[in-house]
Amino acid sequence: MKIIVLAKAVPEVRNVRLALKGGDIDRSDLNYIINEQDDYALEEALRQKEKNGGEVVVLTLGEEAGRKGITQMVRQCYAKGADRAIMALDASYGDWDDAVKARIASSIISSEGADIIIGGSQSFDTASSRFGPMVAELLDIPHATLITALRNEEGGRITVYRDLEQGVQEIVELALPCLVTVQTGINTPRYASLNKIIAATKKEIKSTSLTELQISAQQIEAWNRVRRVSVAFPTEKESNTLFLQGKPEEEAAQLVKLLGEKGLIQR
Amino acid sequence: MDFSLSDEEQLFQKTVHDFLKDNLAPIARDIDNDHRIPEKLLHGMGEIGLLGATIPEKYGGQGGSITMATLGAMEIGAADPSMATAVYYLLVTGWSHLASKLGTEELRQSLLPKVAAGREFLGIATTEPGGGSDLAAMKTNAKREGKRLILNGEKIYISGVSEAKRMGGGHLTLMKTDPSLKHKGLTFAYVPINSKGIETTVLENMGRMGISTGIVSYRDVDVVKENIIGEYNRGFFHAMAGFNYARTLVSAACVGAAQWALEVGAEYIKRRSAFGSTLARYEGVSFEFADLAVQVEMVRNQVMKAATLLDAYDSGKNVPMKDINIAVSASKLTAPPLALDTIKKVMMWHGALSYTKDTYLEMAMRGILSYVVGAEGALNIMRLVIVRDLLGPEFLPYR
Asked: Which of B11, B18, B64 sits opposite A79 (nearest CB)?
């Protein structure tokens, strides 16, 4: 069984002071980590491989400027057990809509071939859930989103479990090849061990480019139909703490009066 | 000179950080309260390769470097600033490193895989009731009898006594084998704590409650020749070599705790207001923060230098032992007092809150003091090493 994991490197917010540059976040000084939900996707892929054999290939798209951090993320996937990785980085990545990314990913997956394509159900940085389903549509294969369990069935099928609202569980059977996106509850991702980290830094990472994929700037332009206009941080709110003063009974009376004035309690 | 970490070092540091953030930091207070590091945590530390970081892969380890182990110690000191987990880690890592270099093949095969997996403890036993640093006063002795040594005596302030008894394992123990030769007549050997003839007593400490400290008494204890570390009667030199690894890791754990305290302090002074302004806007506080941040960075660099020199030495490069001794002693001389000073100043910024158990600061202060008062080498001994190597041995007070 061949499984492709869609793994996105997202900015790490710990110890990073976000700043704006033009209409976007300044990406020149970011640390990258694997998108949390994609880490669960990788773990699920590794567990499937451990059960059924096969190969786990990581596919990642990203900014050329983030090559170092994205390479580190891929190495982390290697250290956890991924067999191969394909990295497609481009300087204009930050301007791309999910549709552009999905077309590039599907082009790579078409030539690579896979039984299951698995990714996180949402990306942490842009809060987008579209990428996975878009890839499936472009490849014309079935997909299921937000899965919480995956079982292999006989005869080239898998069964996946989806948690819906109010505790309702949906069980879906998909014919292979297919694409699924996972929720964080599906498993507990492993930590890489030191000897695997040492081995991972020596492994090759295949790098591909738009030119190699025969995708032109005009095609990108035509696909890129949703554009980010600007990014803004929330305005800082003034602290609005009010200290009541007086004896306890006076403070209580003031509090009741204030809550009444704000319409929060009725007498 | 390149101050950056390699890709694999960065990746290891991040993995360890993530693992400890999820598995150690949330239970640090429980470790202090329960006087025990959960075995599940130790097994996890074994699985990610933290405990056997430098042990070769053929003995169940990871084949990593002292630099990597040092990065691990910094992360552990930050995740559990009580130092209990750091003590466990540095003993197991530092002394298994020496055992993998100088131990017999039998000992390496029987002991190291279990230590690396977090399933057996390995520590050090040198200090005696009559003295710690003063090895001439050592009384614990071993007589040769056929192919074995018969050990008698007593060691005190030995870390990991209860852990070794519970999990299995023991201590690399320094013993007099030829009293007439003074420090040239000492032998270093692994002594399993559950050996016949050993009795233990646990002491009550003020801090680092998660790991025990105790007294180990030996009465006609058999030490097989396979358990001798390095050469017979060369134990003093082997132990000193081992201390260079362990002291580097101690210093790293202290840097980790200092960095942790500084981050806790920074969060607090940016948030806490007094007289209409945040504490961080008062120069009396922010300049103190700046000074501490600079000192932590300087000592971190010093510790990383020591680790780098040890790695170079281990890989066969021509590194003068004097350079290693000075780098390691400078680290052990500066890191624990700096961690104590940082924790104390951050406590002062917090005021009464820091005197409660609502923060980890009091626990950190109790723990870090063990390294200030002397564990893994008294501060004045570090000064003596520097005097010996810079001024010359003729200026040592005991010569």
From this structure: B11
Q: Output the pLDDT for position B268.
A: 96
Q: Which residue bears the tokens 């200290």?
A: A243
The average confidence (pLDDT) of chain A is 90
Tell me how far apart the alpha carbons of residues B305 and B324 are, in angstroms, rounded to a whole number. Answer: 9
Residue with token string 């840097």: B255
Question: Which tens digit of pLDDT belongs to each residue from A128-161?
Answer: 999 999 999 999 999 999 999 999 888 889 999 9
- Render pLDDT for B30-48 as a digit per residue (tens, 0 to 9): 999 999 999 999 999 999 9
Give me the pLDDT at residue B303, please.
98
Q: Which residues contact A89 (CB under 8 A, 6 or more apart)?
A: A61, A62, A63, A64, A66, A67, A70, A207, A209
Classify residue A102 as exposed, middle or buried by CB count within 10 Å of its CB (0-12, 13-18, 19+). Answer: buried
What average pLDDT does range B364-388 have in this prediction? 93
CA distance B315 to B318: 9
A60: CB partners within 8 A, 6+ apart: A6, A7, A8, A9, A70, A73, A74, A85, A86, A87, A88
What ipTM was assigned to the predicted interfaces of this complex? 0.80
Whole-angstrom Cα distance, residue A32 to residue A69? Answer: 5
Please check the confidence at residue B63 and state whether its pLDDT lies above 60. yes
- Whether the CA torsion B253, B254, B255, B256 is positive or negative: it is positive
Q: pLDDT, tens digit, for every residue of A4-63?
A: 999 999 988 765 667 777 777 777 677 889 999 999 999 999 999 999 999 999 999 999
d(CA B174, CA B151): 10
Residue ranges of domains in chain A, CATH in brackets: 2-223 (3.40.50.620), 237-267 (no CATH)
User: For chain B, first and last CA: distance in Å?
Assistant: 38
Structure tokens at B22: 């999820």
Binned at pLDDT 50, 70 and 90, residue A238 comes out as low
**Domains, in order of start, for chain B:** 7-121 (1.10.540.10), 123-227 (2.40.110.10), 235-395 (1.20.140.10)
Q: pLDDT value at position B72?
A: 98
Percent of the residues in chain B that have a pLDDT greater than 90, as a whole number? 92
pLDDT at B154: 97
Question: What is the distance between the alpha carbons of residues B65 and B71, in angstroms, rounded to a whole number?
Answer: 10
Residues B102-107 have a mean pLDDT of: 97
What would the two tokens of residue A161 be? 């479990």
Contacts of A194 in chain B (CB under 8 A): 12, 15, 48-50, 53, 62, 64, 68
SS3 assignment, position B36: coil
* DSSP conformation class of A228: -
Instruction: Indicate yes or no: CB of A194 within 8 angstroms of CB of B47.
Output: no
Q: Does B10 touch chain A (CB under 8 A)?
A: yes
3-state secondary structure of B207: coil
A218 to chain B, any CB pair closer than 8 A? The answer is: no
Statement: residue B307 has pLDDT above 70: yes
Nearest CA among B241, B225, B307, B306 for reference residue B101: B241
Question: Within an 8 Å CB–CB cutoff, is residue A80 touching chain B?
Answer: no
Give the position of tokens 């006063």: B137
Residues of B in contact with A195 (CB under 8 A): 49, 57, 62-64
Work out the angle between the directed axes of helices B235-271 and B283-314 (0-180°, nearest 10). 150
B19 Cβ under 8 Å from any chain A Cβ:
yes
